[in-house]
Amino acid sequence: MTVRIRFDGDELEGRDGQSIAGVLLAHGHRTWRTADGGERGIFCGIGVCQDCVLTINGVEGVRACQRTACDGDVIERESRA
Fold first, then answer.
1. How many Cβ atoms sit within 10 Å of the Cβ of residue 30?
2. Burial (0-12, 13-18, 19+ Cβ within 10 Å), 66
3. In angstroms, rounded to a whole number, what is the distance separating the alpha carbons of residues 1 and 63?
4. CA distances (Å), origin 61, targets 2, 16, 44, 47, 64
5. Global pTM?
6. Calpha distance 81→68 (Å, rounded)
7. How far apart are CA 71 and CA 81, in angstroms?
8. What is the pLDDT of residues 26-71, one digit of tens each?
9. Helix/strand/coil (H/E/C) assignment for every residue in the chain
10. How many whole angstroms separate alpha carbon 31 and alpha carbon 77?
């Protein structure tokens, strides 16, 4: 089964059960937020480092490596000082 998410205005396809981070990585996105002036994306992949946080469906601070992609998810980048 395929899931479709929206990221930066683009529709991306992923596999059922795939994490948000997995879908983003599969489509060539290596970073998706900024913190302290640097680009961040997935680092540890197990939810410890919090480098991969995004806003998903209006909820801030969601770990992309821990959240399963669901059809219709709207993903937004975060920026932290």
1. 10
2. middle
3. 23
4. 25, 22, 16, 11, 9
5. 0.90
6. 27
7. 31
8. 999 998 888 888 888 988 888 898 889 999 999 999 999 999 999 9
9. CEEEEEECCEEEEEECCCEHHHHHHHCCCCEEEEECCEEEECCCCCCCCCCCEEEECCEEEEECCCCECCCCCEEECEEEC
10. 9
Q: Residue 51: what residue type?
A: D
Question: What's the pLDDT score for residue 64?
Answer: 96
Lookup: tokens for 41: 């994306």
Nearest to 63 by CA among 34, 39, 41, 35: 41
Tokens representing 57 are 């469906």
Tokens encoding 19? 């994490």
